[in-house]
Automatic annotation (TrEMBL):
EC number(s) from the headed UniProt entry: 3.2.1.55
Cited InterPro entries: Alpha-L-AF_C, ASD1_cat, GH, Glyco_hydro_b
Top EC category: hydrolase
SUPFAM superfamilies cross-referenced by the UniProt entry: (Trans)glycosidases, Glycosyl hydrolase domain
Transmembrane segments: none
Similarity remark: Belongs to the glycosyl hydrolase 51 family.
Entry keyword Transmembrane: no
Name listed for the protein in its UniProt record: non-reducing end alpha-L-arabinofuranosidase
Keywords: Carbohydrate metabolism, Glycosidase, Hydrolase
Gene Ontology terms, MF aspect: alpha-L-arabinofuranosidase activity
Family matches, as SMART domains: Alpha-L-AF_C
Amino acid sequence: QTARITVHPSFVVGEIDRRIFGSFVEHLGRAVYTGVFEPGHLTADADGFRGDVIDLTRELGTSLVRYPGGNFVSNYFWEDGVGPVEDRPTRIDLAWRTIEPNTFGTDEFMRWARKADVEPMMAVNLGTRGADAAANLVEYCNVPGGTAWSDRRRANGAEEPYGVKLWCLGNEMDGPWQIGHKTAEDYGKLASQAAQAMRRVDPSIEFVVCGSSSREMPTFGEWERVVLEHTFDDVDYISVHAYYQERDGDRRSFLASAASFEAFMHEVVATADAVAARRHSPKRLKLSVDEWNIWYISEFPGEDNLALLEEPRLIEDVYSGLDAVVAGDLLATLIRNADRVAVACLAQLVNVIAPMLTEPGGDAWKQTTFHPIALTAAHAQGVALDARVEGPTLATDKHGEVAGVSGTVTWDAASGSLVAILVNRTAEPVDAAVEHVGFADVALVEASVIVADDNVRGASSTDAASDLAARGAAAAPRALEGVTTADDVSTVPLLP
Ligand code: AHR
């Protein structure tokens, strides 16, 4: 099989917003407790932040982290998580039915974000609370001082404001599982009111309004339309959440996940632009894909079966080599749509459906999915080019016929770096030719490959940490032999 990917420096899709390389830390399972935060751990600093997790977060290339949820935020009283730790209440987290000690809250997250060198992205509770609590949290975070909540922050040890720029107006409010789930009408009105109140506290902040929890939601499309009719003038981004998994051994459909992801994003963009057209508005909303990943949801017991435990092992998916290839394809697809995707968060960062796992009191290690994300974040810079791909197709039961090879090409004029991210979704080798017409003096610097030669998934609760770490390491990029560059064409032998 052969494929041809054609790019030209004049055909640009858009600037790559570094916030596309974001992630997510929710109070869920062991994401916070024994994930980012474990006082007493061998690598923990004076704040109790695990140094091994911070090191891996940097190596992953994480630019931004969304916090504190997720479903958790929809009944979160943020005031519980600030002030002297001994005064903070222990609560039942209704989303995941676990005990929340509140020993990690807003101030701890901001300190952690600074140490990990990531931009904080905050979500507010629009499930059981409203504009008042949300506006107070903006005041706590962003006002320099001289008001009740900003002075409370200073008294709690943070003299300088945090300057949080990006705010999510609730989480997955279309989902019946969400605490305080609402109709699109009710949510749209509340989100508009909350955004207006929050912006009066800090006019410089930006808002993400909730889109659908997945493309499969029965309300998808209509939800976006109605919500945006209420919030179009108040918000900057609309959220997209998307999780994929291999179901019933249907590997081909799983390998085509990124094609469905791309179609989903285009549908949300089309809906937002239709609302703009009805209003005769030139404004073009962008997407905040603030939850994306592979998640074996069908193996997840659901919120109803959870015991009220502290630090439970929840949703600790162990990924295969095949999962790494699909994760890489999903991230490349976000980059390819850089004209409309401004923010994206791999859900999540550590332990919970995550590219890294930890043991309490023990090691932290990379999962298979870590590798394509770190490799892409390190190399994809500048602008995404309009890469035209011709090649084999892949027939799937779930997504119809999709491109058998996906191609994403980025170009950074400042460093002179041209990067092609190619994914062979088929079961056969493909000889790919990248035609980089119009670039002077292209020379090959590096060619790496991630191979999906295992499709074994495990369980962090039963398998030894060393076995899991070895499985993660097996997907590390290897040197790809046989790549040649001559004149305007590079040829790349893609493995199945
Ligand atoms: O990321 C895990 C969960 O997935 C989040 O809490 C929720 O927003 C989504 O359903």
